């Protein structure tokens, strides 16, 4: 079994709920980035020991929020020693809009993983793009680079569409399974 960690920032609780579903699928440890954009030394130890790291951040104004960026910048010491080289990585984001430029955030997360010399795992789910498709179907937003989630701006995290949450669980499972296969 691969040790997987989900490190995320959540401003309003929506990303946290998605992170919990990703972690459930991956049987992963959750690491929350705080309001100051920081995690503890023990959390960094967990990430350093992990076989797979899954990044999560909401999309604010077309990119990751400053708290996630501060965390990402803090990983430069790890980058300098190639500490995360050859780890398996994945990523997810959510925003209130169906599109909301979430792809830009995913590419930012993928680039961070690539800067560390990591191996990125795509979503691996066919899009639900037929006339009969609903928001309860997996990958109903049609992502491929990573997980895309839509959270209504006028509702709490409990109103995230079931299809997005199931996509999150399946994506976490995929990342962990690939990390386990590569660990052998």
Task: Give your account of this protein's structure.
The protein is α/β, with parallel strands linked by helices and 184 residues long. The chain has helices at 14-26, 41-49, 66-74, 76-80, 102-115, 162-183, and strands spanning 4-8, 29-32, 52-58, 88-95, 119-120, 147-150. Strands 1, 2, 3, 4, 5 and 6 form a 6-stranded parallel beta sheet that branches. Strand 1, helix 1 (14-26) and strand 2 (29-32) form a beta-alpha-beta unit. It is globular and about 50 Å long.
Layout of helices and strands:
Elements: E1 4-8, H1 14-26, E2 29-32, H2 41-49, E3 52-58, H3 66-74, H4 76-80, E4 88-95, H5 102-115, E5 119-120, E6 147-150, H6 162-183
Helix pairs in contact: 1-6
The sequence of SSEs as H and E is EHEHEHHEHEEH
Structural class: alpha/beta
The number of E-state strands comes to 6
Helix content: 25-40%
- Mind telling me the C-alpha Rg? 15 Å
Low-confidence stretches: none
Largest sheet: 6 strands, parallel
Please give the count of helices: 6
Query: What is the straight-line distance between the termini?
Result: 9 Å
SS strand fraction = 15-25%
Q: Could you say which overall geometry the principal axes of the C-alpha atoms support?
A: globular
What integer is the average pLDDT? 96
Comma- or semicolon-separated keywords:
alpha/beta; 184 residues; 39% helix
Short description:
The chain has 184 residues and is of the alpha/beta class. 39% of the residues lie in helices and 16% in strands.
């Amino acid at each position: 079994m691969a040790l997987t960690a989900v490190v995320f920032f959540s401003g309003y609780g929506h990303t946290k709920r998605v992170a919990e579903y990703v972690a459930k699928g991956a049987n992963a440890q959750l690491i929350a980035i705080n309001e100051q954009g920081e995690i503890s030394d023990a959390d960094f130890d967990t990430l350093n020991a992990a076989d797979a790291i899954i990044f999560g951040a909401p999309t604010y104004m077309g990119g990751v929020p400053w708290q996630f960026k501060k965390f990402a910048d803090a990983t430069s010491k790890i980058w300098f020693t190639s500490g995360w080289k050859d780890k398996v990585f994945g990523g997810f984001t959510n925003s209130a809009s169906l599109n909301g430029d979430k792809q830009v955030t995913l590419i930012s997360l993928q680039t961070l993983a690539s800067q560390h010399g990591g191996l990125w795992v795509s979503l691996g789910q066919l899009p639900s793009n037929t006339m009969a498709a609903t928001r309860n179907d997996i990958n109903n937003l049609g992502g491929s680079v990573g997980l895309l989630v839509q959270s209504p701006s006028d509702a709490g995290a409990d109103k995230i569409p079931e299809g997005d949450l199931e996509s999150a669980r399946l994506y976490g499972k995929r990342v962990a399974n690939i990390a386990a296969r590569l660990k052998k």
